[in-house]
Design brief:
The chain is an alpha/beta fold. An eight-stranded mixed beta sheet has the order 15-25-24-17-18-19-20-16. It is elongated and about 100 Å long. The protein is built from 34 helices and 34 strands. The longest helix is centred in the last third of the chain and has 25 residues. About 50% of the residues are buried. It binds adenosine-5'-diphosphate and magnesium ion (2 copies). The site of one magnesium ion has 2 residues, from loops.
């Protein structure tokens, strides 16, 4: 018989942490904590498998009712209370939780099982009517918002509460006297009845099932769907539903609730870190409605509970072997744990925690490597506010998620989304964020909230996204309707620029210069461990000596792609380049090339020097020439004047160079074949630079690369020129350097005839941007119109320009490598497309036996880690705790 319900309580649970797929992360860990003897209120969890069925046809198996009834009875027995009873009533929470943690993205209902009779009973039993009616009014509001779907602008509750507080002149919700809370419940219900004729269900059983179904429905809620899309969580998981006895942090001054991390989720430092609110219920901390106090202050107010909390967090961390994120509540001095999970953290914290846990002997170094997702390293390399910049600070809040961002201020999530779609950098400014804002938060460069603490919604979500975030900037007064915020007497309007510093909490006026970060010792250690494991080399794509140097600092072991044309985009170089392109004969072209030669040579000298000891792949001129040409009339005129021809003549030349499909036109080796003098000049610049720096003691390893080859004949044509020029340069210089001549593989025909090409070519570099275009037969520049729709509809798992298409393009890559190595055993193979820095693609490159991947400088550490993880996977090493973050 299949079962749907798993109980936990009084030290024993049916489930365990291993059952996340069935119980969701929350339910599985509640079961695990129960089994560990940690104080957890009793309850039960309904299997996640029922969620998808419910969403599909709005039904659940008939046996479920009976199983829930039995499980609820057990909770009643353990608590010595009765659900819905008029004496010693039991209240429960109904909580969501999927196998993958999606903080705050789904719904939870607290204090369920209340009606007028139950509230009266609770007030009498506890002698604390204030508490009973506080719980009651919270419940009606939550039930109306979440289960009955009033959340949003239709919700009538907040204005009624605000009016009541104003009338009673109290500031905090919990300071309302009991009779006013009670009156408020009546007002809530009346307002509710006006909106929904069926009104508020007084029957606790009806409440329970209403809430269970609402949790299932919340799996398909907008914010949950958006979160899953952003974080690639499969929709088939579904959410489990946990029903558990309530414990009350809002009982009075001897009670409270909090959230804590076993280490600092922002930096990774090993210190207990959390926040606590006296006389409050769970969601008060997360919602940022009141600004909580540091958890350490609990020590004074609740000494035994605090001691037990410390003991518990240490135990949980040891048990799970990862940093934990805990929810707890103290009811009349007694501690209860309500949740534990592996804590979300910044990239920097992920690295530090992994390194320190390995150093503490809690996990192995290999586990530490598997535990950090390569993409998380991206954040470590994020820019920060230039320390030398003069800044004008508008306000200071809490540094919730590091990095820095500058952008234009918007106040609404949808606005952030729209503006970002138009290519604007935006900073989303809110009083506080809620899970509804998720799409706008993802679109923004940074997030600023006026309220909330380090564990507020905004802080947690931003850290998860690796996004710069400042919360609790108290001086900031947000006037969303007016489209401004005020801070310390200054006003910032919608569309104005601000800069956020997520590492210090500063909100800075205007657009401030950002600078690159310095890397910590933990990062260095971590990357050394990665380098020990990985089998393939990581190079960089770099077009300038500056890029080359930065990439080397990030650990690049050479250059996999230098795009020579990128050297020509600036200053007076573009003029010489244009002259070369529009030249009508060889003599004219050679004259222009002679101007370009010294510029190229000195760039190559710089790059070779920066890469001393490492190989440098230099690609011969590749792009369609018209990319360099002036099109605006005044630019045409200026160039014509400079060249001593008329503007009309030049315009005619520009027109004659126009191509119907330039990406498949006169470009790549086709240029060097029709204009051999271009290849000659470039080869001369490369080899002269090489002998010049070699003379100074630099170890240079040039690899000359012929682009867009389809046939071996094309390759041989260009190779002959390169080798002839090399011999000439070496003879003149009386010095030789070792070099290779190879090719890009970026056309299907090249991959298919790789055995022919490899007879002449000494290396292959897969140009997977073009290879993806030519394999799919789609233009990257035009794909924006339809590719996103393909991904959305599931016709493609990913954008193939971001994540290598392993089945299609990958097959050509594999075939090309096999064919190539069948004739040249030691053929060196690498990749230089965008995919060279994308973790799953790097793992693929490892598996097909490439010698190296090459990526942009900032992706180098990511590729190093991905390569190490691929090697560990090969060896069958796993993180025993499965705690990848
Ligand atoms: P989320 O997934 O959004 O964190 P939770 O199910 O964890 O939602 O619940 C929201 C808040 O309510 C949390 O702070 C949690 O600790 C608190 N909470 C949930 N169940 C109970 C309970 N039985 N007693 C007291 N507080 C609870
Ligand atoms: Mg929670
Ligand atoms: Mg290309």
């Amino acid at each position: 018989m299949s079962r749907y319900v798993y109980s936990f309580g009084a030290g024993r649970a049916d489930g365990s942490a291993k059952m996340k797929n069935v119980l969701g992360g929350k339910g599985a860990n509640l079961a695990e904590m129960t089994n560990l003897g940690i104080p957890v209120p009793p309850g039960f969890t309904i299997s996640a498998e029922l969620c998808n069925a419910y969403i599909a046809d709005k039904t659940y198996p008939p046996e479920l009712k009976g199983e829930v009834e039995t499980a609820l009875k057990r909770v009643e027995e353990m608590m010595g209370r009765k659900f819905g009873a008029a004496t010693k009533p039991l209240l429960v929470s109904v909580r969501s939780g999927a196998a993958v943690s999606m903080p705050g993205m789904m719904d939870t209902i607290l204090n369920l099982g209340m009606n007028d009779a139950v509230a009266a009973a609770l007030a009498k039993e506890t002698g604390n009517p204030q508490f009973a009616y506080d719980a009651y009014r919270r419940f009606v509001q939550m039930y109306g918002d979440v289960v009955l779907g009033l959340k949003g602008s239709r919700s009538p509750f907040e204005p009624l509460l605000a009016a009541k507080k104003k009338a009673k002149r109290v500031e905090r919700d919990i300071d309302l006297p009991a009779e006013d809370m009670k009156a408020l419940v009546g007002e809530y219900k009346e307002a509710l009845k006006k909106l929904l004729p069926s009104g508020f269900p007084e029957d606790p059983q009806a409440q329970l099932w209403g809430a269970i179904e609402a949790v299932w429905r919340s799996w398909m809620g907008d914010r949950a769907v958006a979160y899953r899309r952003i974080h690639h969580v499969p929709e088939t998981l579904g959410t489990a539903v946990t029903v558990m006895a309530m414990v009350f942090g809002n009982f009075g001054e001897d009670s409270g609730t909090g959230v804590a991390f076993t280490r600092d989720p922002s930096t990774g430092e090993k210190r207990f870190f959390g926040e606590f609110l006296v006389n409050a219920q769970g969601e008060d901390v997360v919602a940022g409605i009141r600004t909580p106090e540091p958890v350490a202050l609990m020590e004074k107010k609740f000494p035994p509970a605090y001691r037990q909390l410390v003991e518990t967090y240490q135990r949980l961390e040891q048990h799970y072997k990862d940093m934990q994120d805990l929810e707890f509540t103290v009811e009349r001095g007694k501690l209860f744990l309500l949740q534990t999970r592996n804590g979300k953290r910044t990239g920097a914290a992920a690295v530090r925690v992994a390194v320190e846990m390995a150093e503490e002997g809690m996990i192995t170094q290999q586990e530490a490597l598997l535990r950090v997702s390569p993409d998380a390293l991206d954040q470590l390399l994020h820019p920060m506010v230039d320390p030398a910049a003069k800044v004008s600070v508008l306000a200071t809040g809490l540094p919730a998620s590091p990095g820095a961002a500058a952008g234009q201020v918007v106040f609404e999530a949808h606005e952030a989304f729209e503006w970002a779609k138009d290519g604007k950098a935006v900073i989303l400014v809110r009083a506080e964020t809620s899970p509804e804002d998720i799409k706008g938060m993802a679109a923004a460069k940074g997030i600023l909230t006026a309220r909330g603490g380090m564990t507020s919604h905004a802080a947690v979500v931003a850290r998860g996204m690796g996004k710069c975030c400042v919360v609790g900037a108290k001086a900031v007064e947000v006037d969303e309707a007016g489209g401004v915020f005020r801070s310390n007497g200054r006003t910032v309007k919608r569309g104005d620029w601000v800069t956020l510093d997520g590492s210090t909490g500063r909100v800075i006026d205007g657009q401030v210069k950002l600078v690159e970060p310095k890397l910590s010792g933990h990062f260095e250690t971590f990357m050394q461990w990665a380098d020990r494991e990985r089998k393939i080399a990581v190079r960089t794509n770099a077009d300038t000596p500056g890029d080359a140097k930065r990439a080397r600092d990030f650990g690049a072991q050479g250059i996999g792609l230098t795009r020579t044309e990128h050297m020509f985009f600036e200053g007076d170089r573009i003029a010489a380049m244009r002259e070369m392109i529009v030249a009508r004969d060889v003599a004219g072209r050679k004259k222009a090339l002679a101007k370009l030669l010294p510029m190229q040579r000195s760039d190559f000298e710089g790059i070779f020097t920066a890469m001393d000891g490492y190989p440098v792949t230099i690609r011969l001129l590749d792009p369609p020439l018209h990319e360099f040409l002036p099109h605006e009339p005044d630019l045409v005129e200026a160039l014509a004047r400079q060249m001593g021809i008329s503007a009309e003549q030049l315009a005619a030349i520009v027109e004659s160079l126009r191509e119907a499909n330039p990406m498949l036109g006169h470009r790549g080796c086709r240029l060097g074949i029709t204009y051999p003098e271009i290849t000659e000049m470039q080869a001369q610049a490369i080899f002269e630079a090489a002998v010049n720096v070699a003379a100074k003691g630099v170890k240079v390893i040039p690899e000359v690369e012929v682009p867009l080859v389809a046939t071996v004949a094309e390759f041989k044509n260009q190779e002959a020129i390169v080798r002839r020029v090399a011999a000439e340069v070496f003879a003149r210089a009386k010095r030789e350097v070792h070099y290779l001549v190879g090719t890009m593989i970026e056309l299907p025909r090249a991959a298919l005839t790789a055995d022919e090409i490899a007879q002449a070519a000494e290396f292959f570099s897969y140009g997977t941007n073009d290879l993806t275009q030519t394999t799919f037969g789609l233009s990257r520049d035009d794909a924006g119109r339809f590719l996103p729709a393909y991904v959305e509809a599931g016709l493609l798992a990913n954008d193939p320009f971001q994540v290598l298409d392993q089945q299609g393009v990958g097959k050509l890559i594999k075939l090309g490598i096999e064919l190539g190595r069948s004739v040249r055993k030691d053929l060196m193979v690498g990749i230089c497309g965008e995919h060279g820095g994308e973790p799953s693609s790097v793992m693929f490159c490892h598996r097909v036996g490439m010698n190296y991947v090459s990526c942009s400088p900032f992706r180098v550490p990511i590729a190093r880690l991905a390569a190490a993880q691929a090697a560990l996977q090969d060896k069958g090493v796993e993180d025993r705790t499965g705690a990848t973050v």
